[in-house]
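Friendly challenge for the regulars: who can give me the structure tokens for this chain first? No prize, just bragging rights.
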Amino acid sequence: MIWATSGVAFAAVVMIVLAVVYGFSGGNLPAAERLTRLWRPPSTDERLGFRAKQKQKVTQVLGDVGRIIPTSSKRMPHTQRMMARAGFRRPESIMAMQGMKVLLPVALVALVYFTGLYHQSPIFILVLAAVVGYMLPEFWLTTRVRHRQNQLRLSLPDCLDLLVVCVEAGLALDQAFMRVTQELRIVHPILCEELDLVNAEIRIGRTRVEALRQLADRTGVEDIKSLVAMLVQTERFGTSIAQSLRVHSDELRTKRRQRAEELAAKATVKMIPPLVFFIFPALFVVILGPAVITLFRHFM
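First reply, four minutes later:
Bragging rights claimed.
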């Protein structure tokens, strides 16, 4: 019975994989076009378009599943904020995340069930698989948000230096933002993407203060929040933007140096557990092992 169930599960998985590959490879295309695609290597634009279509199909399927499951209205603003900070701003991305939280527990429970890993304590293992599957999307989202915020934090001083140069050259702040995005797009693409959104919001009619505050809320980075507060105060009181940006850039570099010194100071403490549990026992075995063996033979 177990072999029959495993065989049916394996056949079902193979059929699903073949169906997905067939759907993504363009099974409905004519034979001549499929042969042309096989013999001619796709260009960069075609590869990017194919990947975009794949992502769109997967997002659509996950979104359809997410819409079926009722979601809490209290939890939705937090999910929207986290998705925006991770770089996913489309409404269907939120539903796709909800769909992942539904499908991944089911997939892990099915995997544990069909592989036979639940025989020792079936209820505990199945519940654990469901909980892990539900928590994995949230963990991945939190990790992506932290990585994105770290990239924004590291790229901000370079952006401020170029902003100072642009403002001192006579450009307005909006034009300086556009110039910064043009110059730093390859080096700091995430920050340039956020500045592009600020410029787009200003062009559609929002005030600069509203667009900057939306930037601070969208990123959730303390350095950007302090920069936005400084720019708002500068515009309100009419002080020099270039001088304020220069002072703020120096403060950010000082904070980054202090943060590096703090991490270096914590490194010695973090090295103690690996030394105690992994390196010292091996050293004791190598150094004291022959002496212990000699004493044991002598007294025996």
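The longest helix spans residues 122-168. Residues 1-5, 16-29, 43-48 have pLDDT under 50 and may be disordered. Your move, everyone else.
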